[in-house]
Amino acid sequence: MAWDFATEPEFEEKLVWMRQFVREEIFPLETLGLDYDEMLRVIRPLQDQVKERGLWAAHLPPALGGMGYGQVRLGLMHEILGQTPYGPVVFGNNAPDSGNAELLAIGIEETGDEAMREQWLQPLLEGKMRSAFSMTEPDTAGSDPTLLKTRAERDGEEYVINGHKWFTSNGSVADFLIVMAVTNPDVHPYQGSSMILVPTGTPGVDIVRDVATMADPESEFGTFGNHAEIYYRDVRVPAGNLIGREGEGFSLAQQRLGPGRIHHCMRWLGQSKRAFDMLCERAVSRTAHGSLLAEKQTIQNWVADSLAEMHAARLMTLHAAWKMDNEGAPAARMEIAMIKYYGAGVLYNVIDRAIQVHGALGFSCDLPLEHMYRAARAARIYDGPDEVHRQTVARRTLRNYAPSEIPTEHIPTRREEARARFADLLEQATANL
Ligand SMILES: Cc1cc2nc3c(=O)[nH]c(=O)nc-3n(C[C@H](O)[C@H](O)[C@H](O)COP(=O)(O)OP(=O)(O)OC[C@H]3O[C@@H](n4cnc5c(N)ncnc54)[C@H](O)[C@@H]3O)c2cc1C
Prior knowledge:
- By secondary structure, this protein is α+β, with helices and mostly antiparallel strands.
- Helices cover 51% and strands 14% of the residues.
- The radius of gyration is 26 Å and the shape is globular.
- The two termini are 47 Å apart.
- The mean pLDDT is 94.
């Protein structure tokens, strides 16, 4: 039997250290209202400690300085780091830099372009540069990227890029952008799109604003975690800035999104658990109508349902990670789609219940719950809206079923068949009576 739900003791030791480090050293930073530069300065000594422990940028293969942990172990790490927005930055594996580094690494492996490694990948891994992924456009449906309009035309030894993007996360603090553009409009977009590295300072790159959102309604330009709107107008970059090969944009995107979704879901579980702890603490602390909230059945239902939902999401996510480690990302496509919408729903519901149990305090800014709630709403949209993932799961599942005029389980039909099949036995059985 190979079923095993245990973490090996050596890795569990690392997780124990991370739990304590995140709670004691990183949680307090959340309350200080640091701007981007202050944040970078304050977290540097913490990043050094992470590096000393060999846990920096652990998502990368050993050849690139990572630990080659595989998705299950990374998932367990992300569950701890995702409890606080600073966690992944301190550990050098925050989105979108971690996914972008993986993209560059895959591209370099394919093309052998060592200049790209030195100029962009290495500084990104060391945390000396920031990156952004620029795919979604305001004028086309992001959930159907075959509609992509941004064009990159080859002109001699350069690409010329024209397009309009938004929700390029971290775009206004990035040193370079990875732009998804159509390079060949004459073939299906799955074969005609490419990813191209564009340094932010390139003439024609116009970052017009950081879009204010539910999570950050008063977004100041150039804040870490921003979602930039960007025009690309006749932006010229060397042809060597192509990542991987021309036409590979979609297949690269798929490779990047699989692990990324597992990490997201595990971070959401870290957040859910934090909200759940607040829920339970309040339930055993507050009295109303003659008893503790914890003694009321509705609150008990919230505790029990939240715990069961988080447990289900955790098992589903770790199973998806395990499948990816053992059978590869394409084999885990259904599982990854399922955890994306299921996990986002769990996150949202648990935070909602935690707010409710705190009453006005939950709605106030005196607790992290209100911000967690606003940020959690986006989980149902980014990396593909719930509906698209549900469609993937439903379509793939329904493929295994054939139409049948009479339902296979139709009892009268089955009875008739059984009578014909067992006629002799039935005759003997009745004769013996
Ligand atoms: C916080 C945040 C960060 C993001 N970061 C990035 C980033 O770094 N880089 C980047 O390129 N993009 C980013 N995005 C954009 C994100 O990927 C897109 O918002 C997402 O793909 C959906 O695209 P859309 O917004 O154009 O919505 P649309 O495609 O217009 O979809 C709108 C709605 O239509 C419905 N819908 C769509 N398809 C179906 C279907 N098949 N069946 C049923 N209903 C359907 C869904 O309800 C969906 O929510 C980010 C978004 C958010 C919110």
